[in-house]
Amino acid sequence: MLERYMSSIRRVLKTATVSSGLMGMVFSVSAASAQPAVVLDKQATPAKVHETIADPAVRPFRVDIPEAALVDLRRRIAATRWPDKETVADQSQGARLAKVQALVQYWGTDYDWRRVEASLNALPQFVTTIDGLDIHFIHVRSRHPHAMPLLITHGWPGSVLELVKAIGPLTDPTAYGGRAEDAFDVIIPSMPGYGFSGKPTAPGWGPDRIASAWAIRATCPKAVTGAR
Which string of b and e fits 42-62 if b means at least 16 CB within 10 Å? Predict the structure, then answer.
């Protein structure tokens, strides 16, 4: 089933790229957010959809949250002042106190940020500047030589963590029952103001501008590390 699914994706991408005469197409791969992903052909020329200038300098990036910040966060979570318990047995008065307390306990004591941090740092991460804003992204190249570039983006609110599990099947489909010709080189950026990307200082970073920035990200040869 995976093989048929991956082949269908690649066939749709190729057909849309050729028939449109553009650099690629918008394709959704995030079921949770239904936000667009920009798919670009390796030989295509960037379309001028927005006056966006990319800084070709790409800097390696590692997540390294100071321990003091984590300790402070846990302290503030533990200091939560709780309201009285609801007087009904349903959610007609809002979220139930016990459920919220269990959620807060998970984030305050059970959630292992260092494990998540290590899993992110096991992936190739970078930062580049687009339109004056630092953009963090994961870039994983397939081991298969003719992989197609695929840029997938999370929604809002959200983060690159939503899409990490898709990297393996997309970059190495043969390990998941697929075919080598269905492989992708995957780029997963953090949206402006989210995760480890910079925060805009003025309005205007809507879907159109973000999609334009992603097009620059995926088509600038010097800006994609290790581009074939």
Answer: bebebeeeeebebbeebeebe
Q: How many CB atoms neighbour CB 6 within 10 A?
A: 21
Calpha distance 195→123 (Å, rounded): 15
| Euclidean distance between CA atoms 9 and 3, whole angstroms | 10
Nearest to 219 by CA among 30, 14, 46: 46
Provide the terminal-to-terminal Cα distance of the chain, rounded to the nearest Å.
30
Give the confidence band of 105 by pLDDT, cuts at 50, 70, 90. very high
9 or 183, which is more confident?
A: 183
CA neighbor of 32 nearest in space, from 158, 119, 152, 214: 158
Q: Which two tokens stand for residue 165?
A: 């599990």
pTM: 0.73
